[in-house]
Amino acid sequence: MQGETKERLETLSAPYGREVRLDDVRFESGMRLLRVTIREGTRITVLDLDPGTALAWAGAMAQWAAHATGPKEKA
Fold first, then answer.
1. Comparing C-alpha atoms, which of 6, 16, 17 is closest to residue 46?
2. Secondary structure (3-state) at 46
3. Contacts of 3 (CB under 8 A, 6+ apart)
4. Can you give the pTM of this predicted structure?
5. Would you say 46 and 36 are in contact if contact means Cβ atoms under 8 Å apart?
6. pLDDT tens track for 4-46
């Protein structure tokens, strides 16, 4: 888009052939967002996140990942 610069931060391969791209997007106005692009075959979803939302999402994902990969509970 015009008026923005974009720097690719990461490209992740996800299960079932999906791809997740993370870009640092800076606008002429000074606004800066994290652009999350999820590609599922021909479907593409784009989310622009402000720093506060990105921090909250990162925390929730880290918490889930720690729980999901932690030691198994004994039955």
1. 6
2. strand
3. 27, 28
4. 0.83
5. yes
6. 999 999 999 999 999 999 999 999 999 999 999 999 999 999 9
